Amino acid sequence: MGFKRLLASLGAGGASVETELSELNVVPGGVVQGEVRIQGGSVDQQIEGLSVGLQARVEVEGQDTEIKQDIEFTKLQLGGAFEVRAGAVHVVPFGLEIPWETPITMFAGQHLHGMNIGVTTELEIARALDSGDLDPINVHPLPAQQAILDAFGQLGFGFRSADMERGHIRGTRQRLPFYQEIEFFPPQQYRGLNQVELTFVADDREMDVVLEMDKKPGLFSEGSDSYRAFKVGLNDFQGTDWAAYLHQWLAQVGGQRNWL
Questions:
Q1: DSSP string, 73-89
Q2: Ordered DSSP codes for 130-196
Q3: Beta pairing partners, 65
Q4: Going by C-beta distance under 8 Å and a sequence separation of 6 or more, which residues neighbour residue 212?
Q5: Residue 104 in contact with residue 144, Cβ under 8 Å?
Q6: Is 68 in contact with 59 (CB distance < 8 Å)?
Q7: What are phi and psi of 177, to 5 degrees?
Q8: Residue 135 DSSP SS3
Q9: Nearest partner of 214 among 228, 190, 197, judged by Cα
Q10: Tell me, what's a Pfam family for it (predicted)?
């Protein structure tokens, strides 16, 4: 069973709302199932609207600082207006689709630190919104994404960090107002590198894989970046040796720039 969150009581003697997720583990393109339970209070109340959505906590760059912003990136209305009678219970089931671009929050069986994605619930009453806490979900990689992640592991890269940034990556199929970066630190054989950043931008057929290779700054030089983007089919990725593919690119770029 999933987390249960209790929304604030809607006024003195008002209704209370509880959201329960039946399964916390999902993948991009999947569905999170759950139900919203509205418990009537001591008075009848008119509910004007009920919705659930997905929310992410995203980094937004300012002039001098970075701030965190909660962005709701999909929303599902659960019916129209209705009345909650005093003491009555209304149970509203839902199936909320997970957008294909949704960042992953799980890697190698562990939750990625800093990845905050979950289900929100909003109840509208008397032209006011009552919003509940975030019900976290675990977004696991698609098989094609897992293949790329495994390739980095086979090459000896280690996970460093992950974040979600507001903005758009040009030349990709991105529709959401933010994207995820997964950062890896390199093994000794790529000693000239500081890190490699990985971004997935998927739809229902394929995904853009965006890589940024960051050079270590030297004594007399600054660090520099190199980018690469390629497409991977969600259903035909098995025929490629992705570890060899990534190594070839890393070695080629590193050799051309005398990084490695």
A1: EEEEE--S-EEE-TT-E
A2: EE---EE-EEPPPHHHHHHHHHHHHTT-EEEEEEEEES--TTS---SSEEEEEEEE--GGGTTEEEE
A3: none
A4: 181, 196, 197, 225, 226, 227
A5: no
A6: yes
A7: -80, 10
A8: strand
A9: 197
A10: Spo0M
CA distance 213 to 252: 12
* Global pTM value: 0.88
Residues shown for the chain: 260
Fold of 4-139: Immunoglobulin-like (2.60.40)
pLDDT of residue 78: 94
Question: Both tokens of residue 84?
Answer: 């909650």
CA distance 38 to 75: 19
State which amino acid sits at residue 145: Q
Please give the DSSP secondary-structure letter assigned to residue 132: -
User: How much is the pLDDT for 61?
Assistant: 83
Residue 118: what residue type? G
Angle of the 242-256 helix axis to the 143-154 helix axis, nearest 10: 50
pLDDT value at residue 256: 60
**Per-residue pLDDT tens digits of the chain, which is 260 residues long:** 555 554 544 555 577 888 999 999 999 999 999 999 988 888 888 888 899 999 999 999 877 788 999 999 999 999 888 888 999 999 999 999 999 999 999 998 899 988 999 999 998 876 666 666 789 999 999 999 999 999 999 999 999 999 999 999 999 999 999 999 999 999 988 877 888 999 999 999 999 999 998 765 543 334 446 788 999 999 999 999 999 999 998 888 766 655 55
* Structural domain boundaries in the chain: 4-139, 143-256
With contact defined as beta carbons under 8 Å apart, do 66 and 59 qualify?
Answer: yes
* Best CA proximity match to 161, nearest among 122, 195, 127, 208: 195
3-class state of residue 61 by DSSP:
strand
Tokens of 242: 């992705």
For residue 209, what are the β-bridge partners?
200, 230
